[in-house]
Design goal:
globular, 7-stranded mixed sheet, 4-stranded parallel sheet, about 5% helix, about 270 residues, mainly beta
Length: about 270
């Protein structure tokens, strides 16, 4: 076969492998467990009982679905033995995660930050509750590499959609800020659409998504994310990036702490 590489562009925009992709942050078990056990408002720590989860290890126990449905804030679900995830047999999967969790065909929705340590989380959900989404800012050429838009750096002038189901449209004339046109750091809010989760959902194991759910923010799995479709006819969930995860975290609506004290000392 022949080469699939086209002619080289002057700005090397064809060299996708040289693009500095956004890297997934490290979700440190010990660090987030310490935050979860701090006892501050809207932060919750759950211990595995052998059949369900108990908040702070105190009965009664409830399921993952029951603790998180309709809730906000931070929810940390510990491993089966309350120790960091570990892979003792070298198969690439942690051996001390809690059993698989299935939330299927129920109207589940949640907001905030979920840190789960289960072998697999399967969410097969109908549409969630109405929420207005804000698209990311207009793309620009970061000429000096300072990760922000500076005067004189070219940018693409977008016409933002009213509905999240519609696409973006490029207005006539990409501009560097001349005239009365100003670059938008964030798009205008869309009309509300059904959303099942808003925030960051992290699991140390696998994440399997099916159904008609919408996830707004970021979903991260320590092992893998899959959509187990039998014949390709099942509905596929939507994952929509919320730029606030990078630029305005945490949002007040998610009821997450901005500061957590890890040590307090007084001087002489």
């Amino acid at each position: 076969g022949g080469s699939c590489t086209g002619p080289a562009a002057a700005d090397r925009s064809h060299v996708l492998q040289n693009f500095d992709m956004a890297r997934c942050p490290r979700f440190d078990y010990a660090e987030w467990k310490m935050v979860a056990e701090s006892g501050i408002r809207d932060v919750h720590y759950y211990v595995w009982s052998g059949s369900d989860f108990m908040e702070n290890g105190i009965p009664p126990g409830r399921t993952f679905e029951q603790w998180t449905d309709g809730a906000r804030g931070m929810h940390f679900f510990d491993t089966a033995d309350a120790r960091p995830p570990r892979d003792e047999d070298g198969d690439g999967a942690a051996d001390n995660l809690t059993p698989e969790i299935d939330v299927i065909s129920v109207p589940w929705s949640s907001k905030g930050f979920i840190f789960l340590n289960a072998r697999r989380l399967r969410l097969d959900l109908p549409p969630g509750v109405p929420l207005a989404l804000r698209p990311p800012g207009e793309p620009y050429l970061d000429s000096n590499g300072d990760l922000r838009h500076d005067s004189g750096e070219p940018w693409v002038n977008l016409s933002y959609p009213v509905s999240a189901d519609n696409g973006f449209r490029v207005d006539a004339g990409a501009t560097s800020g001349g005239g009365g046109v100003v670059r938008d750091d964030r798009g205008t809010a869309t009309t509300p659409i059904p959303v099942n989760f808003h925030g960051i959902l992290y699991t140390s194991g696998q994440f399997e998504a099916t159904g008609s759910a919408t996830y707004y923010g970021s979903v991260i799995a320590g092992e893998r994310i899959s959509q187990d479709l039998v014949d390709g006819t099942l509905p596929v969930p939507r994952f929509i990036w919320d730029e606030s995860v990078k630029t305005g975290w945490p949002l007040p609506d998610l009821a997450l702490p901005r500061v957590v004290y890890t040590r307090w000392s007084t001087g002489p």
